From TrEMBL:
PANTHER family linked to this entry: FLAVODOXIN-RELATED PROTEIN WRBA-RELATED (PTHR30546), FLAVOPROTEIN-LIKE PROTEIN YCP4-RELATED (PTHR30546:SF23)
A GO CC term assigned to this protein in UniProt: membrane
Protein name per the record: NAD(P)H dehydrogenase (Quinone)
Residues annotated as signal peptide: none
Species of origin: Halomonas ventosae
Domain Flavodoxin-like: 9-193
Family to which the UniProt record says this protein belongs: Belongs to the WrbA family.
Family annotation (Gene3D superfamilies): 3.40.50.360
GO molecular function, one term: NAD(P)H dehydrogenase (quinone) activity
Source species taxonomy: Bacteria, Pseudomonadati, Pseudomonadota, Gammaproteobacteria, Oceanospirillales
Alphabetical keyword list: Flavoprotein, FMN
Amino acid sequence: MTDDHRPYVLILFYSRHGATRAMAERLVAGVESCPGIAARLRTVPPVSATCEAVDPEIPEAGAVYASLDDLRHCAGLAIGSPTRFGNMAAPLKYFIDGTSELWLGGALVDKPATAFTSTSSLHGGQETTLVSMLLPLLHHGMVYAGLPYSEVELMETAAGGTPYGASHVAGKRSDRPLDEHERHLAFAQGKRLARLALALEASRREAK
């Protein structure tokens, strides 16, 4: 729950050059377009092969680092990552690998979830990256929600956009901004997740 007692959707992402962060912000806008629910934007720290390296607990700029409690109390979850050889980036996987405590307690069971990604090239592993993020969500018992083809931009896009989740083609220099189709699909994904989170939250309360 948020400080004002509204349920919230956790938008959890890792971004190296800013494209995945830009997508996360569009999902936030989609969530917050639905009354009665809030968005909570969080990131994860990079991982280092140098054991002596210690990152600050609060990043110098941007979203703060996620905690297990951010996950534990969310009504819905969206996770985003750039692709790394067709898989999610190591910092996001490292964080997810540390959620066994939540898995053991069933904290995320029956909550809706989705994923989003950005790649340098059009065929750079977008769908496999999204599936790689889907797998741990299913193990947590979450209800996965992609993008339905009722979003006509899925048929019109010449860049990012998949039924598995929103995506973006950042270009070989990772400097291509989100186009209108990509912006719409990320917004629609956040909005859909918010609607499902509200519905499933109400269902869970009734079941208690």
